Amino acid sequence: MKDYNNLAIGYGGHSRVLSQPKDIQDISKASIYLRNKVIPRFTQQLDDLQIMPIDSESLTKSFHDRGINMRYLSNVMVLSKINHVKEICLIEMLARTCKNIINYEISQLVNDKYAER
Hints:
With about 120 residues, the chain is mainly alpha-helical. It has one domain (about 5-90). It contains 4 helices and 2 strands, in the order ββαααα.
């Protein structure tokens, strides 16, 4: 099994091996900055109604416009003090989970159908 601990995925899916300690240090600093500064600031803007997502598409766009991956939905939900923000994050997490389950089940059906041939 391949070890992916030192692999960075860049924009467009391009990857390169992180062999330099500086690369790892830079990624660590960026991650800390995102979690400690960017996400709390974004959540505060949501709570202050400076950003008002009303559906999945506008929520996703708000995240991505600020360089935040959707995997941080739970962080925003926990930090927010506004029920609407918490609810829209929870709904998005549930929708993404359902999508993954459905996609998995469909792929299993397709695989089973091809295996019968």
